[in-house]
Amino acid sequence: QVQLVESGGGLVQPGGSLTLSCTASGFMFTNAVMDWSRQAPGKERESVAAISSIGGTRNYADSVKGRYTISRDNAKNTVYLQMNSLVPEDTAMYYCSARMRGSGLAYWGQGTQVTVSS
Asked: How many CA atoms lie within 13 A of 47 on its CB side?
């Protein structure tokens, strides 16, 4: 059974930091491109960061570039999102997803809420 379990969300003040984690099971993690996306109320879901299967390539949305860092530990089947200099506009539900190389199958987690507010 495929599972992606996100954790690490919460309430943080503007300027603060959070690190999200997503632990995967049920598929070959090293064969997956991992992605973090977010969806704020009333807005479409947007991808904010992605990392290739062995971590050699990372891509970021312009809105988070320089503030967010995506990384992965293939030994732990876990992908991380380090978020710094958070602003209220970063408030959203954050989702982890996996896209399998070759088949293109995609899996999604349930999300973790990040709220940036004073």
From this structure: 14
| pLDDT tens string 93-116 | 999 999 998 888 999 999 999 999
Span 21-34, pLDDT tens digits: 999 999 999 999 99
Name the average pLDDT for the chain.
96
For residues 70 and 97, what is the distance between their CA atoms, to the nearest angstrom? Answer: 13
Query: What is the structure's pLDDT at 104?
Result: 84
Secondary structure (DSSP) of 41-91:
TTS--EEEEEE-TTSS-EEE-TTTTTTEEEEEETTTTEEEEEE-S--GGG-
By the 8 A CB rule, do 118 and 24 touch?
Answer: no
